[in-house]
Amino acid sequence: MRTFLGKWLVALAAVCSIAVTPVEAASRIKDVASLQSGRENQLIGYGLVVGLQGTGDSLRSSPFTEQSLRAMLQNLGISTQGGDSRSKNIAAVLVTANLPAFASPGSRMDVTVGSLGDATSLRGGTLVMTSLSGADGQIYAVAQGSVVVTGFNAQGSAATLNQGITTAGRVPNGAIIERELPSKFKDGFNLVMQLRNPDFSTAVGMAEAINRYSKEQFGGRIAEARDSQTVVIDKPKMADLSRLMADIENLVIETDVPARVVVNERTGTIVIGQDVRISQVAVSYGTLTVQVTETPTVVQPEPFSRGQTAVEPNTTIQASQDGGTVAILNGSNLRTLVAGLNSIGVKPDGIISILQGIKTAGALQAELVLQ
Fold it and tell me: Which of 8, 16, 49, 246 places its Cα 20 to 30 Å from the Cα of 172?
């Protein structure tokens, strides 16, 4: 019986794209939670990419590009009066980056650039020095360097080939951090951990694991679960926060996730969580296929007659019905549920319809997420 179910599970995972989650998930704290004061900060800036091979902005269609070009040249001491520029070797771009936590001045980070005008490609361009500001308006980094574009396009008189995106790219290590964040890690009196997937059971389990560690090291409890996402850790006396964080983030805890079924109707992908249960329900699935075939026949007149060539219609209609099998689904565990769905023998779109119908009937004891 186990061999039979194993074959059905392999066939269903290959044909119907059903992903099965493990029975229990044991993870390190650093993999399921992040330090509140150690989060990234988003930066943004406006700049120019130069050196393009005629694939930049049309200055008439993108007036802000021409204004930026004139302002840059004036700052370099070059007069721009007396004529309009028609160069298409420059493009206005928006530059974004994520400032890493605890970043220090002088370190580097990657930046992403995206075209703002009607440029067709940024390949081969160079980003001119661009300041990156945070939400508070302060400048935290300056970016400059060659733009790396993974996409390409080729165009001829009768055909065009495009692959990937050519109007966006990256500048690896293109930004130098000029200002550090005002907060200091070791100035705090506690550590606030935030779960990436909020869950009360996981938060309480994390606090208990930290308290077991603290009783052995410091002789008392230091962690408390405030809600489903936040666990607050008080700093023990004479403890170093960096050393404490290094020990805590490597503690292994059991994570818990809600029962959930995720369905992507565009790709036909179905992901069923481990704790999904289905109450006993009978399911029948069948499809009616109607095929209409047109085979017109050309009719010729008799020789030496005054008749005309005509087309005689000929229509064939065939109707067939597949499926119709009634199966009993009683998903006390994931293996039984998958085997029951596979026993009906339908395609992924059919399984999606069945899951939606079971949810409507109130027999699916899980959250159904449609994408």
Answer: 246
Per-residue pLDDT 10s for the chain (371 aa) are 444 334 433 343 443 444 444 445 688 998 988 888 777 889 999 999 999 988 888 877 788 888 888 888 888 888 777 556 667 889 999 999 999 888 888 999 999 999 998 888 898 899 999 999 998 889 999 999 999 998 777 777 667 777 788 889 999 999 999 988 776 676 667 888 999 888 898 999 999 999 999 998 888 898 999 998 999 998 888 888 888 888 999 999 988 878 888 888 777 788 887 778 777 777 776 654 545 566 778 777 777 777 777 777 776 656 555 555 555 555 555 566 666 666 666 677 777 777 788 788 887 788 888 87
For residue 341, being part of any structural domain is answered with yes
Give the containing element (helix H, strand E) for 91.
strand 90-99
User: What residue numbers bound the domain in which 304 lies?
Assistant: 2-21+260-370
Residue 303 within a domain: yes
Instruction: Cite the DSSP H helix spans in 101-186.
Output: none
* Domain contains 14: yes
The two three-digit tokens of residue 30, written as one number: 């650093």
